[in-house]
Amino acid sequence: MLATRKAFILSAPALVVLVAFFVVPLALTLVESLRDGGGWTLERYASVLSQRSFRVALVRSLKLGALVTGIAALVGYPAAYAISKLERGKRTLLMSLIILPLMTNPVARTYAWFVVMGRHGIINRGLLALGLAERPIKILYTEGAIAVGLLQLFLPLMLLSLVSALENVPAELEEAARSLGANGFRAFRRVVLPLSADGLVIGGTLVFTGSITAYVTPAILGGTRVLMLSTLLYQKAMTLMDWEGATVVAVVMLLLAVGLNALLRRLRPREAM
Amino acid sequence: MEYLRLDHITVGYRKGEPVLTDFSMAVGEGELLSLLGPSGCGKTTTLRTVAGFVLPWKGKVLLQGRDYTRVPPHRRGFGLVYQNYALFPHLTVFENVAFGLRMRRVPREEIRERVAEALRMVKLEGLEKRLPGQLSGGQRQRVALARALVIRPKLLLLDEPLSNLDAKLRAGMRTELKRIQRELGVTAIYVTHDQAEAMALSDRVILMREGRIEQEGAPEEIYFRPATPFVADFMGFTNRFSARVEAVTEGMMVLSAGGMRIRASRAGTDLPPGSGVTVAIRPSSLRLYRGGEGIPGEVVSHAFQGESVQYLVSTELGELIVVHPETTVEFSPGEAVVVRADPEEVVVFPRKGDEG
């Protein structure tokens, strides 16, 4: 009882801030999106959901989110595994290098891709020089560009979750599996993977929700034509002054994030003992 | 019959810092060999080399004459039991034990039979569906043993398997481990820092120090006839003092220390009279008397230990520890006593840089 009260008192300030500046506005937004003069209506949802631009952005967001999460998991697992096996000093160094992209300014970091992906960027100049292309190909303002940008941004989150999960899998377990006849891959699949799946789920959740809600990266690398939900939302609110439409997009994005979290939480394996 | 041989192994984890250098040893078929030594002596590295988890820089691992040096761990078919059990926490007892059989693609029906048999052997029937987290330490250790044995290992490797158990359980498991190993006739290497454990279990003991073999032999040999001061120290010969050989007669040596005479039999009879020696005696090989021949001293303190009483006695040779296997305290602090040693249990080492 005392512990509960103490916990409550200690979290009160944070709670007040959250309720006042997050929960209340969120609730108001939600209510507003469903109100029509004096009554309730779903009409706004029907209208936004039937727009082609919305559906394209929705599908693109989900697709890119899934793609980035998948690649982050595939690329991240081996790296995280290798890092978790290093001695403490080297591990700390690598971990701080991993976090580095998260600490650079998002706009600068994203614009840096122009140097690589632009019309006269490194890739295009290379292709031209090697004779692999006759004129510069379009790399910027494509889904691929957005995916690369998101991957750069969110891979660290996957790595961090996986490394901390893998650190908690004792090396002896893997060795025990090996001594019992499992080759490296089977030892990984039957023992290391199930025991680090928690990290994969957490990392996946972070990367996916991050990818479908990120704004700066799709705005800069996707431009105004390749819209994701976040950029569509901005366009509706700031360019088209369609506040009601923007609210609907915001609610859809929120539901996606919350729903996905709930789903992944169910996927989490039984707590390892 | 020689079964396993480590042949001139040099191995380590960091370049230029070998843990074992030119290390050779052999294990006989069906033998239980203990690698005994303090932490850092290389006993675990030896075991890991045999298991295949560390690759020797030089030398060979031979099993029945076949070169196993480069065989990966999963193809060796050696059973491993760890100090912390290393059970798979996400798998039930049944699945833990079945793991090795599944890796070998043993038919399902046979898996069921062999797992049941293994669990019966370690007396864990009925716990198949539990997760490791729901078991006691002793039970976990049995699961780990069953898991290693069910694959019918060519070699059983045990890395301090009993160190995490409490004293009472440990004694029980020791007997059982020995019984199971005998019953199956499996060749085993047992790594431990606990000399009592090594004595109780082993057919043969290798005592290691800084990556080398310090002494190798039957438990009794190591226990009663330590070959070096290091072994004596490790085996509990706590009382030490300097002496000089006075006379040697038919396997019996007369030593003088601080003007007193001590008899020692057997060991070091090749030492000529006049040579300086270090004498090592176990506390339990000394006895206190109220008079007669021996080293005079005074009882400083006593400690009742249940089945024995330990006395600290101040003598001219320094403080001696004496343990009497009695349940009553016979001597009190301040009492004048005479300490006598059983000549059979006095160990003598030549002293380097011989002086007076």
In a few lines, what is going on in this structure?
Chain A is mostly helical. Helix content of chain A is 79%, strand content 1%.
The largest sheet of chain B, given as strand count, sense and whether it forms a barrel, is: 6 strands, mixed
Biggest interface pair, counts: A-B, 23 and 30 residues
Number of strands of chain B: 20
How many structural domains can be distinguished in the coordinates of chain A?
A: 1
- Mean residue pLDDT of chain B: 92
Q: From the 3D coordinates, which CATH architecture of the largest domain in chain B would you assign?
A: 3-Layer(aba) Sandwich
What is the mean predicted local confidence, pLDDT of chain A? 90
Summarize the biggest pleated sheet of chain A.
2 strands, antiparallel
Structural class of chain B: alpha+beta
Q: Structural class of the helices, strands and pairings of chain A?
A: mainly alpha
CATH topology of the largest domain in chain B: Rossmann fold
- CATH arch. level architecture of chain A: Orthogonal Bundle
- How helical, in percent, are the residues of chain A? over 70%
| Total helical elements of chain A | 12
Explain this structure:
The complex is a heterodimer of chains A (273) and B (356). Chain A has helices at residues 2-34, 43-49, 52-84, 88-103, 106-117, 122-130, 143-167, 171-179, 184-213, 216-222, 229-239, 243-267, and strands at 35-36, 39-40. With 273 residues, chain A is mainly α. In chain A, strands 1-2 form a two-stranded antiparallel sheet. In chain A, strand 1 (35-36) and strand 2 (39-40) form a beta hairpin. Chain B has two domains: 2-228, Rossmann fold (3-Layer(aba) Sandwich); 236-350, Beta Barrel (OB fold (Dihydrolipoamide Acetyltransferase, E2P)). Chain B has a six-stranded mixed β-sheet with strand order 6-7-8-3-9-10, with helices on both faces. In chain B, helix 2 packs across helix 3 (108-121), helix 2 runs parallel beside helix 4 and helix 3 packs across helix 4 (137-149). The two termini of chain B are 48 Å apart. Chain A binds chain B through residues 170, 172-173, 175-184, 186-187, 190-191, 194-195, 269-270, 272-273, and chain B through 51, 53, 72-80, 82, 84, 86-90, 99-100, 103-104, 131-134, 147-148, 151, 157.
